[in-house]
Amino acid sequence: MKIAIAQLNPIIGDLPGNAAKILELSQEAAATGVRLLLTPELSICGYPPRDLLLNPSFVEMMDYTLQKLATDIPQNLAVLVGTVAKNDQAHLTGTKPLFNSIALLENGKIHRYFHKRLLPTYDVFDENRYFTPGLQPNYFTLDNVDIGVTICEDLWNDEEFWGKRSYTVNPIADLAIIGVDLIVNLSASPYTVGKQKVREAMLNHSAVTFKKSVIYVNQVGGNDDLIFDGCSFAMNSQGEVICRAKAFYSDFINITFDVEKQDLALSKITELANSADEEIWQALILGVKDYVRKCRFSKVVIGLSGGVDSALVAAIASYAIGKENVLGVLMPSPYSSEHSINDALQLAKNLDISTQILPIRELMQGFDQSLAELFKDTEFGIAEENLQARIRGNLLMAIANKFGYLLLSTGNKSEIAVGYCTLYGDMNGGLSVIADVPKTRVYSLCHWLNHQQNREIIPTHILTKAPSAELKPGQFDQDSLPAYHILDDILQRLINQHQSAAEIVNCGHDAQIVDKVLKLLFRAEFKRRQAPPGLKITDRAFGTGWRMPIASSWEALNNMKSNHK
């Protein structure tokens, strides 16, 4: 039996467009003798549709689109399409009105629906908000082959692999007990660094444990803050990878299930990235490219400070959407060093992007004059420093509004974590490209890029000079913050590992520094709540999965406990 994987990049809500792509690949599959075509979770509407699912007309249109697609699918081809199905018992049982489902299309009809059994509610997921879980194992028979159907999270509850059980059932084990010949998993699994290795290790364990071949189909593309890496793959019953689709690109792969051997035959295997930096780079490229495209922009504008963060964002943008579509704006103040201006211009030359220089000295003087009476008898401080960032933010937004560009924000995760950023200033933007990239990783990515291109893309001086916001004479980041390698390790322990201040101190960090970072982290929550969407690349980002209160006294309590441990 020939089976095809359609690794799709849907646009959320574009029901006709997504269906047209599925139909196109169905016709291609049928022409090459494919019997079963697999598409990702919610492939008809794109994942995650979020509160579009609360709109009855959206659900009705999805059903109409699916019905029409079924009539258009070529004969002798079965297609599994991700969709939603109505829960007719919702009003009687007090459950949610929808199922997250897979529809089996064949011979002009929707033959069956298979419902997702495990609904994640952690991190960026909130599926209990919309869906009722399916209660039965899902499988169907095609040409005498029994095929088990699972949807994304259904695969992620192997107690033996994880050392714990998050749900009461294991859909994979249930299908093995039934005795299906093959298991397919149709997913929309967001990218985080190193996640593909976890997926493959998990499927290896399932395949070997249950002696079943498994096909894993994943969505690809950027949708808001989430990036989907694709990397669809299949394993034979010995736990060997027999095919792997491209990472961060749409792909279409044919594989064969040998009915006599009851196993999958070897097919095309695309190699994974050689390093975390390469993987992250590809993810950010896709995230920017799709955000610009799916939000119907064509050009972007970036404030170029001569620093490493804006340099990396400019490089990502130029590779993602083309150098001709990127405008870099330099806005020097009286405190801007000559080398920063030169560094920014050299970066623009290396990337071959257009630039504009807009000095802000006179604008600063105008603000000073307007505020002189109110600010008299006070010392120059943060308010005056931040005016520079806000002047720059206004200029960038004016350019974006005037020409219809998307403004890309350039703050990194380390700065956003501790509030080393200015609301309505450098935080302005429609997309925060490196909001989930720590400062140390920013440097690592820049060095990787220069090495990968075998030439200087990011000027060497940008990578070697001490980082500075240049909002007052002689200012450096480390005047206010710990060294970035220290800060990033503390933040990783606080944010990703959920360690207490005392635990972090016990790992060798200075208690005063830890308490300072903890205080800064919690006090900056009001800023993060007003930040633009940031591309997610780690398992704990300041995005839809970060749900911290703004008005909270937990930081003070936690700080007190760490001092009296």
Short description:
With 565 residues, the protein is of the alpha/beta class. It has helices at 15-31, 56-72, 90-93, 159-162, 171-178, 195-210, 276-294, 308-321, 338-351, 361-375, 382-403, 413-418, 439-453, 460-464, 484-496, 501-506, 511-523, 525-529, 554-563; strands spanning 2-7, 36-38, 78-86, 98-106, 109-115, 139-142, 145-151, 182-187, 213-218, 220-223, 226-229, 233-235, 241-244, 251-258, 263-264, 300-303, 326-330, 354-357, 406-409, 431-432. The longest helix has 22 residues, at 382-403.
What does this structure look like?
This protein is α/β, with parallel strands linked by helices and 565 residues long. The chain has 19 helices and 20 strands. The protein has helices spanning 15-31, 56-72, 90-93, 159-162, 171-178, 195-210, 276-294, 308-321, 338-351, 361-375, 382-403, 413-418, 439-453, 460-464, 484-496, 501-506, 511-523, 525-529, 554-563, and strands at residues 2-7, 36-38, 78-86, 98-106, 109-115, 139-142, 145-151, 182-187, 213-218, 220-223, 226-229, 233-235, 241-244, 251-258, 263-264, 300-303, 326-330, 354-357, 406-409, 431-432. Strands 5-4-3-2-1-14-15 form a 7-stranded mixed beta sheet. Strands 6-7-8-9-12-13 form a 6-stranded mixed beta sheet, covered by helices on one side. β10 (220-223) and β11 (226-229) form a beta hairpin. It is elongated, with a radius of gyration of 26 Å.
